[in-house]
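A student in our group prepared the protein record below, which I am reviewing. Thanks in advance; the entry in question is below.
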Amino acid sequence: MKSAVAATHGREVVGGVGGFAGLFDVSELKAYARPLLASSTDGVGTKVAIAQALDIHDTIGFDLVGMVVDDIVVSGAKPLVMTDYIACGHVVPERIAAIVRGIAEACSAANVALVGGETAEHPGLLGPDDYDVAGAATGVVEADGLLGPERVRAGDVVIGIESSGMHSNGYSLARRIVADAGWALDRHVDEFGRTLGEELLEPTRVYSADLLSVVGDAGDAVRAISHVTGGGLSANVARILPTGTLALMRRASWRVPPVFTVLGDLGSVPVADRERTWNLGVGMVLIVDAARADATIAALADRSLAAWTLGEVIADDGGHSGAPGYVHGAKGVDGGAALLY
């Protein structure tokens, strides 16, 4: 575990791990004209129940890091440091080491330093084999490089980036479907080409380092980024659009991965509920200047990120507001609107 954590440390980390607080040298921020700090915190949710049932704990860290740092990159910020928190009923050293090793490996992939963490034992509150994980990260972005709704305009192109599966959202629904159907995690599912458990535990793709590279090369062409998490595709795209605009996104522009169709059909989940709960194969969304859309898709492909034209941004005249699936604003943001059609 220690070697995996140490591998995330560059010269900026002061004192290593073990103190009451992690220390990170931010001298490089002196080069910023107006540095803005971006922070995010999240957990893995009930996906940890799958890891516990399978007794596989070294992949859940990618889910944690992905949920946190990919929220930070949405603003165009570079993640700098991350900390983690593990609560468990009983400390099993090998299990904790596996969890932290996975977190550290994901941090290395994201080029972020894991500067500290905490493991808390809660007997009587959690069962001996139960645990939960959470994390927080801080990044930085130059003020004039901040991405967001203010940059988006009608005529921009909406680009979808492929997810690596369910990521870390909608597992309460998935677990209920599986339990009601009586499916065991070791059940082989032909559509997946592997067991149900292997499919459900597929780690979250950590996008931040690749997206920062693409955004850096694209200049002002990338207007905004959305991380498709809880609430589904439309809700998370709507919150990065300015009032008066609408993202029209075509369902036929991509193939929904089998995990979503198999579970949805098994549980007789209406399409609208699937779209409000799961990412359906779209992990991140970019809003891009139309003139640079093809070049951006090619740049993403160069970094092994499958991407495609998902739709476009138009002026919202209210004509689509009654359509099924129309979402206006989301998660407290009075922004634009989104519609899958």
Remarks:
- The mean pLDDT is 95.
- The two ends are 47 Å apart (CA to CA).
- DSSP finds eleven helices and 15 strands in the chain.
- The CA atoms of residues 8 and 107 lie 6 Å apart.
